[in-house]
Structures are given as C-alpha cells and as structure tokens.
Amino acid sequence: MNYINMLSKLGMGSAHPGGFEATLRLFRNEPIAPNSRILEVGCGTGRTACYLTEIGYNVTAIDLHENMLKKAQVRAEAMGLNINFLKADVCALPFEDEQFDLVIAESVTVFTNASESLSEYCRVLAKGGTLYDRELLLDKPMPSDHKKELENFFGIPRLMDREEWHTRLIESGFSHEEALEYNHFTDQMKQEQTRHVDTLERRDEGALLDMNLWETLFQHDKMILNNADFLASALFKAIK
Ligand SMILES: C[S@@+](CC[C@H](N)C(=O)[O-])C[C@H]1O[C@@H](n2cnc3c(N)ncnc32)[C@H](O)[C@@H]1O
Predict the structure, then answer these.
(1) C-alpha of residue 175 to centroid of ligand 1, in Å
(2) From ligand 1's centre to the CA of 42, what distance in Å?
(3) 86 in ligand 1 pocket by Cβ < 6 Å?
(4) What are the start-end ranges of the H helices in the chain?
(5) Which of 11, 120, 153, 216 could form a disulfide with 6 if both were Cys (CB 3.0 to 4.6 A apart)?
(6) Phi and psi for 11 in degrees, rounded to 5?
C-alpha cells in the first residue's frame, strides 16, 4: 500500500510536519486579511480548509485523491460547513490566472514535480499574493541509496534541500521567498504532531485489519527514525 493511500484509509487530518499545531501557529503568526481568496492545494481530509472556513474565510480546496476528498466532505458536513472541494492536480490547476490571494500547501508539493506545481501556484495567485508551503526537505546530504529508498517509499520525485527550494520557487515566478520556520526532527516536534486530537478522523471500515496498512505504517516510522538526522521541515513564504 502506498503512503498516501495509507493516510487516506486512516482518514488522518493534518498529515504534515508539526500537525494541526503547526497550522494554528502559521495563522496566528501570519494573520490572513479578511475577504482573502484562499486556495488550499492537496487538502487531504480537509482539516485546514474546515478550520479556515469555520473562522470565517472563503476557501476553495483541491486534492487528487478521491478517498481524501470524500473524507474532507464528510468532515465539512459534520461541522455544518459548505466548502468547494474539487478533484484536481496541483500540476494543472483548473483555475484562471490570478484568481487567489493566498495559496496554502501542507506537505503536498514534495509529492509532485515541484517546478510544475510551484509554477501553477504562482500562476493562480494575484500579483502580490502569497504562498505558504510547509514541506519536508533534506537538511544535509544523505547516502544516495537511503535517499532513493526514502523517495520511493513516500512517492517523492526528488527530495530537495533549502537551496533547491529557493531555486525552484524563484524559477517558478515568485519574486521573494523566505523560510518562516526551519525545524529539525526533534522529540518536541513529535509531541507537537499529536497535540490536537482530530475528533473527526474517519477511518475506512476494517482499515486496521489490513496488514498492508500496518506494514506501510511501520515502514514510515522506520524511514523517519532512521533518517531523522538528514531531514527537516520548512515553512516557506513566497510572494508573487
Ligand atoms: C501528506 S498528505 C497531506 C494532506 C493535507 N495537506 C494535510 O496536511 O493533512 C498529501 C496530500 O497531497 C495530495 N496530493 C499529492 N499529489 C497531488 C497532486 N498532484 N495534486 C493534488 N493533490 C495531490 C494527496 O492526495 C494528499 O492528500
């Protein structure tokens, strides 16, 4: 079972470094202007989109994975929210140019061809618009066989370091980029990940009886633990 399918079967919300705590910290530190047109890409089970809608923003959210979108819809309904969840590929966004003031990605771009996805985020942003993108990255050079194994497991085309992220963001049309956060994999980060229990997490029926799912979960933990020294996560802010 691949990593994204595992996440979707478990119905996990906030499946990104730092979890929901990191999402809350982002919007606390970078308040969103009222009436901003927000696009969340790779919304997964919709926890961030639902949160932003609940506090009064208008959010369009996309993902490519049917099961993720189904769970995002169930979450929104349980919260009494009306959100436009669409099936779409971040590398070919179904929107006209300059439609949004804000694009939010939480552990998404890393799974795609970053030149394509970042160019698409930039294209749909209005001039002066902002991308917030929290992603896994390479902190220091890693033995190439380990790197390949990790990329294959997660379905990451190319795990980039800080410098490569800078290059990709600028080449994709952003005029400025900075890392608002740069975090190593510490125990504190692991605690943060599970601080806010997701009461609307919906597992597929029988998911926990599937040995393939457990195998993928186990592989995931092993992969992160064994490579923690080489990995980091960053929150990029890029302005068009
Ligand atoms: C690790 S999950 C993170 C989900 C969500 N952002 C969160 O933080 O819980 C990655 C998500 O990106 C989506 N994704 C990956 N590649 C995509 C693509 N090319 N287009 C749209 N969504 C994609 C996956 O389906 C999945 O929901």
Answers:
(1) 25
(2) 4
(3) no
(4) 3-10, 19-29, 47-54, 66-78, 114-124, 144-154, 162-171, 187-193, 211-227
(5) 216
(6) 70, 25
The rounded Å distance from CA 133 to ligand 1 centre is 12
Q: What are the pLDDT digits (tens) for 29-65? A: 999 999 999 999 999 999 999 999 999 999 999 999 9
C-alpha distance across the termini of the chain, in Å? 37
- Residue 7: φ, ψ to 5°: -60, -40
Q: Which two tokens stand for residue 98?
A: 């300059």
pLDDT of residue 58: 94
Q: What is the pLDDT of residue 193?
A: 78
In the predicted model, residues of the chain with pLDDT beneath 70 are: 187
Domain span including residue 123:
3-239
Number of domains in the chain: 1
* C-alpha to C-alpha distance for 137 and 151, rounded to whole angstroms: 11
Question: What pLDDT is stored for residue 169 in this prediction?
Answer: 98
Q: What is the CATH number of the domain that holds 185?
A: 3.40.50.150
